[in-house]
Amino acid sequence: MSEPDLATTDPPRSSPRGLDRPFMQRRAEFEEALARNAGARGAEAGASLPRASLWGDAFHRFMKNKASVVAAIAFLLLLAFVIFVPWLSNEDPYAIDFSQAYQSPSWAHPFGTDGFGRDLLIRTALGGRVSFAIGFAATFAIMVVGIVYGATAGFVGGHVDNALMRFLDALYGLPYLPFAIMTLAVFGTVNFWTMVVALTIASWFTTARVMRGQIFTLKQNDYVRAAYAVGAKGPRVLYRHLLVNTLGVIIVFVFLELPGVILGEAFLSFLGLGINPPKASWGTLAQDGYTAYATHPYIIVIPSICIAWLILSAFFIADGLRDALDPRTKET
Amino acid sequence: MLAFIIRRIVWTIPVLLLVILMTFLMMKLIKGNPFQVTERPVPASIQRNLDRKFHLDKPWWVQYLYYVRDTARLDLGPSLVQRNQDVNDVIKEHFPTSIKLGLMAMIFAIVVGIPLGVFAALKHNTALDYTAMGIANLGFALPSFLVATLLIYFFALRLKDYTGLPTNGWEGPSSWVLPTIALGIYPMTYFARLVRGTVLETLQQDYIRTAKAKGLRWRLVVGKHVLRNSLIPAVTAAGPVLGGLITGSFIVETIFGIPGIGKYYVTAVTGRDYSVVMGITVLLSVIIIVANLVVDILYGYLDPRIRDERT
Amino acid sequence: MRKTKRWAWWAGAAALIAIAVAGSALGATGAKSQVLTMSIGAEPPSLDPGLATDTTSSNILLNIMEPLVKLGPAPELKAVPAAASSWTVKGKIVNLKLNPAVKWTNGQPVTSADYVWSWLRTISPELGADYAYQFYGIAGAEAYNGCDPGKANCNALKNKVGVKAVGKYGLQITLTSPQPWFIQQLSHHSFLPTNKAAVTKYGNKWTEPQNIVTDGPFKLSAWKHDASMTLTKNTKWRNASSVKLDRINLQIITDASTALNAFKAGNIAIDTTGFNPSDIPALKKTPEWKVYKALGTYYYGFNVKNISDVNQRRAMSFAIDRKAITKYITQAGQVPARGFTPPGIAGGPVILKNAFNPPTHQTAKAKAFMQQVKNPKKDIHLYINNSPGHINIATAVQAFWKELGLNVSIKVQEWKQYLEFLGPPPNSDVDVYRLGWIYDYPDAQNGLVLWTCGSGNNNTNWCNKKYDALIAKANNTPNANARYLIYQQAESLLSGPKGDMPLMPIYWYTYTALVSQKVKGFSINPMDQWDYSTISVS
Fold first, then answer.
1. Is residue B240 reached through a cis peptide bond, with omega within 30 degrees of 0 on the bond before it?
2. Are the C-beta atoms of C277 and C392 separated by less than 8 Å?
């Protein structure tokens, strides 16, 4: 599905046209343009001041950005909602009581009830836990896979890099949604782990590509050559000098991938490939709601709004982080 | 330039073979019998005969070679589930629909999104900017199944008498409207944000300030310098966006009942119709690969700096 | 330049609005002839009588072709002459006389040679037809169907199949044993003839509208795959004067909400796609809502190896509230099932005399049963396939069984994976599974035979020789009432108080549809068949 992938547009704006598109392939020449800027930034970050200053600086810049602060608060609110509401509530989210079915939102049931009479406020919060858990787990996995793959390609370079990148091209050719569906079909059943694996497998390409670009350009900096000159071995250079300087990009990417993954899980659940009942995720709640949207629209609207809330807040946080970590972006 | 193009085209062949191989292996890993449609298990003798008929009794690499050979001849094989149809027929019937839908959605996205983005950038930090971006962000965040559902609910049901729009199907122009909007909103927001970003950046450039300082009329400046430079990324993104739309329209197709290739693809995966899955995967991969190739070439032509650097 | 951009934007918006208005005008064409537009829930996988497996294809086939016999009104569903004008049954030999007035759309008469050729083609090992098993009641059919053309010469077996043309319009069939239901079974679409010339000429593509040759009241005039099909009246059909509809537009709409919207907007006159349970309470109050009894059972099967104590199985059956499930979850007028055989079948009430699965939950009795279980299995793995309806029912059952102290985990699987998992024999992790059975022909034997030891549909590991003996005995009992009594004993072994309860029926199916008041004469019979030749539109 193209939608989740599109959410990962607008990466580090050091590219001259802000062009790192998920399905656009970079050519070497274009990546050189990136290299020129990233190199400068890396040089700035790695060569001049101690690290703390970069992060402190970034934090202050982030705080000044109103949109980002609002987004961060919204994100934390959502997180608080899913963590605390079930904890504080006494109701049994799985109790079935048909006499209470399909109640519209009211004081007793702020989000209404579903077809089994279960309170939707708690189910939405619990569903949020599942969605967040899947989201964070899959994002983490995507980062790990993407970083390992991309860093290896960028660092080793040469034929290995070429081969790895061409293989990545091949993977880009597989459409997102059917690929995830096939992965789930291989497992045969949908639970937390299979969903995480399926989403990871379908989504790690962009991260790998960007990481490779970053490492590739950063390693051409003088300070890297200097490190080698004083006898540092490869892995140490990779870890201490290169990966560390990509930390900013990685953090931005986490907040870009997270909504994509959660949206992907929602789409898969909507197609009937959600986690097993009676547990719910926002996606399975939306699927439940879709069959009733003409008569009880709140059942599909509420989890969709939660998803939208998450996407928007994560996106603006990513935006803010990117601006905060990139000292050359002018405030317009 | 020519050498570059040829090199890229030559590279697509192993890439395609790899895609076929990966899909093939995945399908082989998936348990499930394409020939069993009801709860009744297929009698062993029939299973054996069917397997033989469709080469499923051979080792996987033999099947793979059969498949590659047939694909090269553009024969994608018979459908395992729809016994009276070939994959080529399926594609011929459904693919044009998806292309049409994708194209229309993309035109909608461009026609609405780009002006929106330009506007927002030119009126930066005003109420117009915030509203425009607000709409864009909402369209970007709301899941497409919700957008499609709401569109049907309001425009095809509630306001049916004013709009005359049907709730489903793909017959006639009136049925194209809602699916186009539903599918097109997401890329529309993409273009809007993209163009806004590039226009803003371009506006910062020195040469714009120079033009302003020289006293050139603002409209001329915008039209000639700003737009031309900032629309390049939008143009080059159009290719992959179109590719993404054609290959990713499954949910919109299901909700609106449109007989496109996306819906068919997922049905084929769940039905274990190996040949249809392979055939459509190959097709979609070719589209994406070609779209990216075209974009890369286009980009080389459009951006004189990149073009000149290479010579 | 800004002006240009703005202009372009407004032009685009204006264009979209213009398209919408034009489109709605285009869509409002009127029709003077009798045209029925309805929705069907799936694309027919095949219109080849030998390859069609689902009811969608079946219904279309039975309207563009003429079966040998049709089924009369419920509940007897007696065989009514159609393409066959008369028949005689003597033990294993069935003789049919074909009606010479039945003709193919190319003008040729339909002869018994056509039937012989078609049936042999369907059971040929080369075709690999899923429904070839329908013919296994005919002598030699199973052997021929199972032949391996790579290893042996199958022609010898082909010649031994008990189907013969006697003259131009006589058909003689030799069965493996007397089968009292055989004539009714001939109403199934598998027994329709296929036109040899068309199949030979067009091969795989012979079912396309431009190639297909049929012999029924309607013709297939158009087929846009996955979108719509059009049937037009066959003016040359022998009873064409009684057919009122000129054209039938079948729209393939798989999504229940989409179909309902289309019905509400007046785009379709009959909605057979299926309904979201949440829409049903409102629809029930409308005069368009129709419920038809069906011959089919929705049940949960036990893996008797895992849940080995019959009292635990009885407890589990008594703990669920079938009425609540049909009232609140499925909501389509289904009947809580106390036994496996549906009551609407011939002899139903007699057969079900001892079936005792309760319609409402009997918690006290359930707990009493549980007390008698020495080593109850507390952790239950309930396997279902991933459809929202099944998930909802399983969720309810999970809650009901929790009252017995059972810890149920619901395992959802994709359909194909699920079928493999169930075997038989079922995967050892399966404790309970769900399936449904729709009858192929209106005789209780069709359902009861599923639970014999060797049945490919018995996923319970239950094997009872006494049961098998009863079924075999019933096969050889031509007298209907005597047979019903034997079935009664068999059903008691399944769902009676002294029975083994290898399965737990939940409800008997119904068919639902929304039928516009403009349509007259539409109904769905218990075998899920509908007949367009009796419908008219005002």
1. no
2. yes
**Which tokens is C214 given?**
């049929």
pLDDT band at A2 (very low <50, low <70, confident <90, very high): very low
To 10 degrees, the CA torsion angle through C261, C262, C264, C266?
Answer: 160
Does any CB of chain B come closer than 8 Å to the CB of residue A67? no
Helices (H), C137-181: 141-145, 155-159
CB proximity list for B91: less than 8 A, separation 6 or greater: B76, B261, B279, B280, B283
- Sequence-separated (6 or more) residues with CB below 8 Å from residue C13: B112
How many C-beta atoms lie closer than 10 Å to residue A97's C-beta? Answer: 13
Cβ partners under 8 Å of residue C352, min gap 6 = C338, C339, C341, C343, C488, C491
Asked if residue C68 lies in contact with residue C84, where contact means CB atoms within 8 angstroms, the answer is yes
The C-alpha of A89 sits at a distance from chain B's nearest C-alpha, in angstroms, of 29
| Cβ burial, residue C32 (10 Å; 0-12/13-18/19+) | exposed
User: Is the CB of C19 less than 8 angstroms away from the CB of B32?
Assistant: no
- Token pair belonging to B3: 């050498």
pLDDT at A204 over 80: yes
CB contact under 8 A, A115 and C409: no
What residues of chain C lie within 8 A of the CB of B168, using their CB? 253, 255, 258-259, 261-262, 267
> Which amino acid is located at B99 in the chain?
I
* Per-residue pLDDT, C31: 45
pLDDT at A47 > cutoff 80: no
| Six token digits for residue B78 | 């018979």
Phi, psi dihedrals of residue A260, rounded to the nearest 5°: -60, -45
- Provide the 3-class DSSP secondary structure of residue C379: strand
Phi and psi at C76, nearest 5°, equal: -70, -35
Closest CA to C412 of A268, A104, B240: A268
Using DSSP's 3-state secondary structure scheme, residue C375 falls into: coil
- Who wins on pLDDT, C73 or B293? C73
Between chains, do C388 and A291 touch, taking CB under 8 Å as contact? yes
Average pLDDT over residues C331-346: 92
Q: Per-residue confidence at C431, pLDDT binned at 50, 70, 90? A: very high
Establish whether this prediction's ipTM goes over 0.90. no
Structure confidence at residue A129 (pLDDT): 92
Q: What is the pLDDT of residues B191-248, one digit of tens each?
A: 888 888 788 777 777 777 777 777 777 777 767 777 777 777 777 677 767 777 776 7
Strand partners, C249: C37, C230
C417 vs B29: CA distance, rounded Å: 11
What one-letter code names the amino acid at A244?
V
Average pLDDT for B271-291: 81
What's the burial of A52, exposed, middle or buried (CB within 10 Å: 0-12/13-18/19+)?
Answer: exposed
- What DSSP character marks residue C274? -
Amino acid in position C386: N
Looking at this protein, which amino acid is placed at residue A110?
P
Residues paired with residue A202 on neighbouring β-strands, in sequence order: none
- In this structure, how many other beta carbons lie within 10 angstroms of the beta carbon of residue C165? 17
d(CA C523, CA C515): 9
AA identity, residue C352: L
A276 to chain C, closest Cα gap in Å: 6
The two tokens of residue C320 are 């669920």
Q: How many CA atoms lie within 13 Å of A18's alpha carbon, on the beta-carbon side?
A: 25
Task: Give the span between the Cα atoms of A107 and C443, in whole angstroms.
Answer: 55
Cβ neighbour number for residue B309 with a 10 Å cutoff: 11
Share of chain A above pLDDT 90, in %: 14
**Residues B1/B7/B12/B18 CA torsion (nearest 10 deg):** -150
Question: Between A188, A277, A291, which is nearest C278 by CB?
Answer: A291
**Residues in a beta bridge with C436:** C298
Residue A331: what pLDDT?
39
| Residue in chain C lying closest to A186 (CA) | C417
Mean pLDDT value of segment C364-389: 91
